[in-house]
């Protein structure tokens, strides 16, 4: 098993950690839910489609560590353990399962429909399920209330973000490959 990282891998990990952090600032609070609409879903899906499972895990662990030590990288510019272990922390923890799984299932070659299927049918259900369960138990909501505030309002925009990430993945993938080949 490979235990060291190449420079290009470390660059991708740092870049995506920064992108997740910045995308957390693009947040629209909803008055009926502790969960905000953020651009993080787009970045999470793009990360899964561009990185290896190992790289996604390292990226997410770095992001979580940055937030835990208090840097304002969580949604709405929050940081610290309270945000991570609060009602919306389940979404962040769910990424540790969903994103490497999507990265594994995407295959080795770009295919738009497979990318859409992986993000919509594998990633989002895991994120919704774990985020909802975590919120339900932390807040004491019943299942219907948890589903209504943690899943239902997000489905249309999340579907759009999955498709958008699947579209954007190809040109970004080509650019990254060109950069790597030019350095060889």
Q: How would you characterize the overall build of this protein?
A:
- The chain is mostly helical and 184 residues long.
- The protein has a single domain (7-178), classed as Arp2/3 complex 21 kDa subunit ARPC3 (Orthogonal Bundle), CATH 1.10.1760.
- Helix content is 71%, strand content 2%.
- The protein starts with 6 loop residues before the first helix and ends with a helix.
Chart the SSEs and their pairings.
Blueprint: H1 7-23, E1 27-28, E2 37-38, H2 40-50, H3 53-68, H4 81-84, H5 89-105, H6 112-139, H7 143-150, H8 155-183
Antiparallel strand pairs: 1-2
Helix pairs in contact: 1-2, 1-3, 2-5, 2-8, 3-5, 5-6, 6-7, 6-8
Quick gist of this model?
The protein is mostly helical and 184 residues long.
Keywords:
single chain; 71% helix; mainly alpha; Arp2/3 complex 21 kDa subunit ARPC3; 184 residues; 2 strands; BioY
The CATH class assignment is Mainly Alpha
Query: How much is the radius of gyration in Å?
Result: 16 Å
Strand content: under 5%
Shape: globular
For the biggest sheet, the summary is: 2 strands, antiparallel
Distance between the termini: 24 Å
- CATH topology (fold) name: Arp2/3 complex 21 kDa subunit ARPC3
Task: Kindly name the structural category.
Answer: mainly alpha
The SSE order reads HEEHHHHHHH
What is the strand arrangement across the widest sheet?
A: 1-2
Number of separate strands: 2
Number of helices: 8
GO cellular component, one term: plasma membrane
Family: Belongs to the BioY family.
Keywords: Cell membrane, Membrane, Transmembrane, Transmembrane helix, Transport
InterPro entries: BioY (IPR003784)
């Amino acid at each position: 098993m490979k235990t060291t990282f190449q420079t290009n891998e470390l660059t991708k990990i740092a870049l995506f950690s920064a992108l997740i952090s910045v995308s957390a600032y693009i947040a629209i609070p909803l008055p009926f839910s502790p969960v905000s609409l953020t651009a993080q879903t787009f970045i999470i899906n793009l990360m899964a489609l561009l990185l290896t499972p190992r790289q996604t895990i390292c990226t997410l662990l770095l992001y979580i560590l940055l937030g835990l030590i208090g840097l304002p990288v969580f949604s709405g510019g929050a940081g610290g353990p309270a945000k991570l272990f609060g009602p919306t922390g389940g979404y962040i923890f769910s990424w540790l399962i969903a994103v490497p799984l999507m990265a594994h299932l995407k295959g080795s070659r770009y295919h738009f429909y497979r990318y859409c299927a992986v993000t919509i049918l594998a990633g989002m259900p895991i994120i919704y399920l774990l985020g909802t369960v975590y919120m339900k138990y932390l807040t004491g909501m019943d299942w219907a209330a948890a589903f209504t505030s943690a899943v239902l309002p997000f489905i249309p925009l999340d579907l759009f973000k999955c498709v958008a990430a699947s579209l954007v993945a190809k040109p970004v993938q080509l650019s990254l490959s060109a950069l790597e080949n030019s350095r060889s």
